[in-house]
Each structure stands twice: as structure tokens, then as C-alpha cells.
Amino acid sequence: MRRLLVPLPAQDFDPTEVSVPWRMLEGQVEVVFATPAGAPAQCDRRMIEGEGLGLFRPLLIADARGRQAMAALAQAPAFTRPLPYDGLRASDFDALLLPGGHAPGMRPYLESELLQALVADFFLADKVVGAICHGVVLAARSLDPRTGHSVLHGRKTTALLRQGELLAWRLTRRRLGDYYRTYPQTVEDEVRAALASPGDFRAGPPLLLRDRPGLPWLGFTVRDGRYLSARWPGDAHRFAAELGALITEDSSAVLPPAQSAALPPAQSGP
């Protein structure tokens, strides 16, 4: 069975972006988790419980599918017994998944030199790499030692959109301050700066409707070779399905990039 590595921060990862791919890929691939010291990671509980989100709670928290998947993941042996970062080698795995999250606990993960070197090794070996939301920032910060450029330089990608990040921040900043601003620079702006051309960033339709089983076309992904990216938890089902297809080399199950870019606009859902 192919092995998929999912590195996580010690705390504050987005529950949907981790648990939905795990649940959809379980049985197809062996999912292996890793954390800084090998202790179980803690998700961003605000995305499960909605504390401090006020009237915008239904819009901003994980939906029912994400919450249920996270509850199941919390009991999974692979999740409760992660590997430590310092023992990871790209050669031990077939694929890499870089999830996101926006709370302060994500910063050590995004800034980890160990993970950045590991990500570069996956790209250099032409292994499957999937990144969603802030996970694309980790990829953007990972440098190809041959060129000194980001491993995303010369590739097409998406990531959390500037408009979505700033909207969530404006809706919550009176209660939560900069909770939704991981860094002063937005995700989209940092990722665009790492690309060979700003036009290599693909925004897709508005961040409105979350995808779901049976309706993966409501999500949006960008595929460039064996690299797959998505924008936010609302793309998680499509992202997971296409990542699984890339890992198992079932290319017929992956929509071509042109088709992805032409998807109908997403709308709001439960």
C-alpha cells in the first residue's frame, strides 16, 4: 500500500483539511502523521466549537462532515502515535500532504526548516505533493537547492485567497484580534511572490459553497504534474479525491486543470 505522510503542527491545524482527506483516503493508502516531537497534535478547537465567532459561527466553523471526521480521526492509532519530524525521510513515503490552518500555532510548522527541506526533497524526487490553504505557504517557502528558488517557482498553484482571508479577519477582529491573520502578509500575496509569474496563481470561483461527497465539483483544485493544490476547507473533498487518484496513479479520476478552472461558482452550504 502507498504511504502518505501528513506533517502537522503541535497545535492549531485546520480539522477539516486533515480529517476529511484522512477519512476519504483510509484504506486506499497508509496515512502516516508526524509532529515536532512525536506527540499527538491538537486541532484548532475554535473551528470545532466556534468560541468567539459570534453571529458568524455557522459560516466559519467546520461543517458537520468536518466535525464528524475530526472526531473519528482523534481516535485513530496513526493519529495518536505520530512520528517526530527529525526522523522523516522523503524516501520512506510515496506522497506528502501539507494541510493548513490559520491560528498562531501554525507558525512553527510553516517556519520549520526541517519540514521545508523535507518538502524540497519530495519535489526533487517527483513524488506526489498535495497542499491546501496555508499548507501552500510551507511549499512556497521550501527552496530547491539547485536553483535557490521556491519549489513552486515555475508551477501553477492556488492557495487561500486574499479576499477570503481578509473577510474572515474583518468579521472577527473585534472579538479575536488577528486570529485570522497568521502573518501581516496574506497567504495569496506570499505565494504569488514565490512563483515565476504572478499569473501562475489560479484563484478559481468565489469561496462560498463547501464541497461534499457526491458533489466534489463544488470544490476547486489546481494540478501541475504531480503537485495538487486547493484553497480552503470547502475544497477538501475534491482535493482528497484527486490526491488519492494521483497517489494510486488512477489519472482518469482527476479532472484536468482546464476543467477545474471552468467549474461553476460555489455557493454557501451547511
Q: What attributes characterize this protein structure?
A:
270 residues; alpha/beta; Rossmann fold; two-stranded parallel sheet; 12 helices; disordered C terminus
Provide the fold topology:
Layout: E1 3-7, E2 11-13, H1 15-25, E3 30-35, E4 42-43, H2 46-49, H3 57-60, H4 64-73, H5 77-80, E5 83-84, E6 95-98, H6 107-110, H7 113-124, E7 128-132, H8 135-141, H9 162-176, H10 187-194, E8 221-224, E9 227-230, H11 236-247, H12 257-261
Parallel strand pairs: 1-3, 1-6, 2-4, 3-5, 6-7, 7-9
Antiparallel strand pairs: 8-9
Terminal-residue CA separation: 34 Å
The total number of structural domains is 1
Number of strands: 9
Cα-based radius of gyration, to the nearest Å: 17 Å
The ordered H/E elements are EEHEEHHHHEEHHEHHHEEHH
Provide structural commentary.
It is a single chain. The chain is α/β, with parallel strands linked by helices. The protein has a single domain (3-261), classed as Class I glutamine amidotransferase (GATase) domain (Rossmann fold). It has 12 helices and 9 strands. It has helices spanning 15-25, 46-49, 57-60, 64-73, 77-80, 107-110, 113-124, 135-141, 162-176, 187-194, 236-247, 257-261, and strands at 3-7, 11-13, 30-35, 42-43, 83-84, 95-98, 128-132, 221-224, 227-230. Strands 5-3-1-6-7-9-8 form a 7-stranded mixed β-sheet, sandwiched between helices. Strands 2-4 form a two-stranded parallel sheet. Strand 8 and strand 9 form a beta hairpin. Helix 1 crosses helix 4, helix 1 packs across helix 11 (236-247) and helix 8 packs parallel to helix 10 (187-194). The longest helix has 15 residues, at 162-176. It is globular. Residues 251-270 have low confidence and may be disordered.
